[in-house]
Amino acid sequence: MKEQETPKTKKAKKKLLIESLMVFLIILAPFIFKAHEYLPKEQGATFTFLGMTFDSNGFGTMELYGWFMVGKIIPLYLFIIWFFTSKDWWYHIILIPICMYSFQIFETVYGSDDYVDTDNVLWILPVCMVITPIVYFIRIKLYDKHVHGIDLDAMDAELKMLQERERLRMEKEALKTKKL
């Protein structure tokens, strides 16, 4: 007799499949990094893979271009895996190296300059200007709560209570002055 799968079982199986895929991609990283060694070493050679033709894109050889690209792609996808699996409060800061590697790959593939990895810091500056204050604000709130023991919600409640007491005291004094 076949048992019915519960939603909890389906969710667990899906999570296990996704986590296994991520582990597999992490294990593959060193092997993918060595893939450039199988590219043509001759000047001006091209490489065809899955119907797409690649050339050296301004680099001396396809092997050099492949070495450069896997040096960007491997850290990029490892950072992406880290970003999506991190449960730490600061995980948004991982977006900065993700953007950096993305811009470097984009600049290499679509750029027409003779030099790569030059001005991409200026492209990442707006991302840093948004992400860094957000992460710092989260850090301050966590630091105040867990290190100093300051609970901002409790402080707000106490301030409201003090304001209410002050309002009641003022009303009481106003009633006393009216009676006299």
Structure summary, number of beta strands: 2
Q: Indicate the mean pLDDT.
A: 83
**Computed structural class:** mainly alpha
The parts where pLDDT drops under 50 for at least 5 residues are: none
* Radius of gyration (Å): 29 Å
Bin the strand percentage: under 5%
Helix content: 55-70%
The order of strands across the largest sheet is: 1-2
Give the helix tally.
Answer: 5
Q: Determine the N-to-C terminus distance.
A: 89 Å
Q: How do the helices and strands follow one another from N- to C-terminus?
A: HEEHHHH
Q: Which descriptor suits the 3D outline?
A: elongated
Largest sheet: 2 strands, antiparallel
Q: Please give the oligomerization state of what you see.
A: single chain
Written description of the protein model:
Keywords: Membrane, Transmembrane, Transmembrane helix. With 180 residues, this protein is mainly α. Helix content is 68%, strand content 3%. It is built from five helices and two strands, in the order H-E-E-H-H-H-H. Strands 1-2 form a two-stranded antiparallel sheet. Strand 1 and strand 2 form a beta hairpin. Helix 1 packs antiparallel against helix 2. It is elongated and about 105 Å long. The termini are far apart. The model has no long low-confidence stretch (mean pLDDT 83).
Q: What is this structure's SSE topology?
A:
Layout: H1 7-33, E1 47-49, E2 52-54, H2 62-85, H3 95-110, H4 120-146, H5 152-179
Antiparallel strand pairs: 1-2
